[in-house]
Design brief:
Strand content: 5-15%
Helix content: 55-70%
Order of helices and strands: HEHHEHHHHHHHHEEEE
Number of strands: 6
Radius of gyration: 20 Å
Strand order of the largest sheet: 1-2-6-5-3-4
Distance between the termini: 65 Å
């Protein structure tokens, strides 16, 4: 019996090690956020798949470039943050408004009951990143673009931004719990959902995360859904409905990347 248990344990250890090896390979071979790529790179990925090829052609009529994000469960928040800050580099009025919202967000989260000692570091780094890509900085938008790309490919900075956006999302869900409870499937309460599915790193995002984050920050997001749904066109969804998009993302089952309209 002991031998069976020991072998079972070894088998579990082997699976765990294989998972770690795969994660290490992904992290070593895939940047957190890639350089701009031609949208046609998707065609090669789905070579021979008639459904996806037709939909990529449809998408190519609206978008010229994309950026890939690392598939680590944080892809929505990373893609959102990168894309929105990239937009703000050349939109000073929107940047100034967002900076005010970001500055005030820590006190708002403390009022909602989040511990200040937890928020301090994450908020400080979040504001540092925002300040480093200000349109007012010397060097112009091209320099700020390079700065943004470097920041988001430094794991420490990039992940701190994601943690803080997850906390902002969680705070919005708590603030408007009666509204968001209707979006939660299963028997989870808002509090359970926040602690299990929103605040932890590497947890994938769904509509509820996008709706709450957009509402908290006042940002319009368009998501293009590349899937096997009927028809040869890609369905787009705007969050919130009717808003002017500032961020454009492509969703493929389980993953978000950044899009650039033509």
């Amino acid at each position: 019996m002991e031998s069976v248990e020991r072998n079972g344990g070894n088998h579990d250890d082997l699976i765990l090690q294989q998972q770690r090896d795969i994660e290490k390979e992904i992290s070593e071979s895939t940047p957190l956020v890639s350089e701009q790529l031609p949208l046609t790179c998707l065609t090669a990925e789905y070579n021979g798949d008639a459904v996806f090829t037709a939909k990529i052609e449809d998408l190519a009529g609206k978008y010229k470039f994309m950026r890939r994000t690392r598939p680590d469960g944080n892809c929505f928040f990373r893609a959102f943050a990168y894309s929105y800050l990239e937009y703000l580099i050349t939109n000073k009025l929107a940047y100034d408004k967002f900076r005010e919202i970001a500055e005030a967000s820590k006190d708002k989260l403390i009022e909602l009951g989040f511990p200040s000692f937890t928020l301090e570091d994450f908020h400080g780094t979040f504001m540092d990143v925002i300040n480093r890509v200000s349109p007012d900085n010397a060097g112009g938008s091209e320099k700020m673009q390079t700065e943004l790309h470097n920041i988001f490919n430094e794991q420490g900075y990039s992940d701190y931004v994601i943690v803080y956006l997850r906390l902002i999302t969680s705070g919005k869900l708590q603030e408007d719990a009666d509204f968001y409870q209707h979006f939660i499937e299963g028997d989870l309460s808002i509090e359970e959902f926040r602690h299990q599915e929103v605040e932890p790193m590497f947890k994938e995002s769904d509509h509820i995360h996008i709706i709450a984050l957009c509402a908290a920050l006042g940002v319009g997001v368009r998501v293009e859904y590349l899937d096997r749904a009927e028809g040869g066109t890609v369905k787009a969804h705007d969050f919130p409905e009717g808003a002017q998009p500032m961020v454009y993302l492509i969703y493929r089952p389980g993953h978000y990347d950044i899009l650039y309209p033509i």
